[in-house]
Amino acid sequence: MPHSRSRRPTPLHEFQLIKTLHRRYGTTGPHVVRGIGDDAAVVTPIKGHELVVTTDLLAEGVHFDHKTATFQDIGYKAAVASLSDIAAMGAKPDYLLVSLAIPSSRTASDIQRLYHGLMLACRPHGVELIGGDTSASRQGLFVNIVLIGSIPSGRALTRDGAQVGDLLYVTGTIGDALAGLRLLSLRPGTKGSLLGTKKDPAQGLIRRHLRPTPRVTVGQILSAQRLATSAIDLSDGLSGDLRHMCEQSHVGAQIDRDALPISSALRRYADMSKVDPVDVALQGGEDYELLFTVAHPHGKKVEQLGRQVDCRLSCIGIIKPEAYGFRIKDHSGSVRRLPMLSYQHFHPKAHNRPEGLWSR
Predict the structure, then answer these.
(1) Which domains are assigned to the chain?
(2) Could you give the angle at the alpha carbon of 58 between the alpha carbons of 53 and 63, nearest 5°?
(3) pTM for this structure?
C-alpha cells in the first residue's frame, strides 16, 4: 500500500486572506455602512451614546507562546483582553479591528484559526469585525486589537470615582489563570487543550488561563444601575490593579485575606506546589475579572446582581484615605502592608519568569 501524501500547508497571501475574512465574517448589522474590504470602515454612531475605544498589542514570546497555546487560543485570549477593558468601562462592545504582523513560517490555516478564536470570543457579545491590516514580520507574530464599544452618554465607569468608605468587590475567582500558566510551563511542548479532562482541576486552571471569561454583562449592569463608583479589570493582578484604581481616585484600601475568592482548584494546586494561594491570587494577572467599588448602602444590591447574572461577587475590602496606603488584614485581625506582586512590563526580570507570558 503506497504512503499517503501529507497535505502541504497553504501559503499566506494577503488579498486572499482578506477575501476569506470577508466571506466568513463580513456580514454586519445596520450601523456598519462599510466594513471589511474598503480603505476604512464607516459606522453610524448611536444617538445619545459615547464611543469607548481600547487597543491591545500582543507579541510572540512576551504575551503568548506556541508551545502552550493553539492559534485559536491566542485569538480567543487576544479578544478577551480588549473585551475586558470594555467591560470595565460598563460599555457594550460593538466593532473589532485586527492588525497582524506575520512571520513567513505561519500558514493561511494558522491565521484563519487565530481569527476563529477571535470571533469565538466576540460573537456572543454581538461584536462585528469591520477591518484591520496585515504585514510581514521578521521577529515573530504580533497581534494588535482595536475594539470599539458604546455606552449611554455620561455612564462610563472609570478608575477615579472611588470614595473613602466604599466597598471593594471582585467578580469570579482570582489567581486561577496564573496557576494554569504555571502548570502549562511544566509541560513544554504540550498544548493546553490536550491536557487532562474537564473534571481534572488542573485542566480547569489551564482553561482559565487560555479561555478566560470577560465580564461584559456585569459591567453593563453596574453602569446601567449606577452601582459602581469606580472599576478596573484584573489584567495585571489584584495587588497592582487595585493600586492603579486607587491612585486614580486618590484613596487607599484595605483588603481582607480571608475574603479573597479562591477556587478549590487553586487551593489544591497551591497545596501540591507548596505555595500560598493568597500570594497567587494577589499576583496573578489575566483572570480578566472586574474589581469595582460600591457605595456602602448599595452592598445588598450587588449581592442581588450576583444571583441575577450567575456570577460570584465577593466583597474583599474597603476604601481608606490615601494616607492609609494599601494593607491586608488576616484572620487574626492583624494588618500588614499589601505587597506589590503584579507583573510589570520593562521590569529587568520580567522576561525571565513564566508569569511574563500572556501578561499585558
Answers:
(1) 14-152 (3.30.1330.10), 167-342 (3.90.650.10)
(2) 130
(3) 0.89
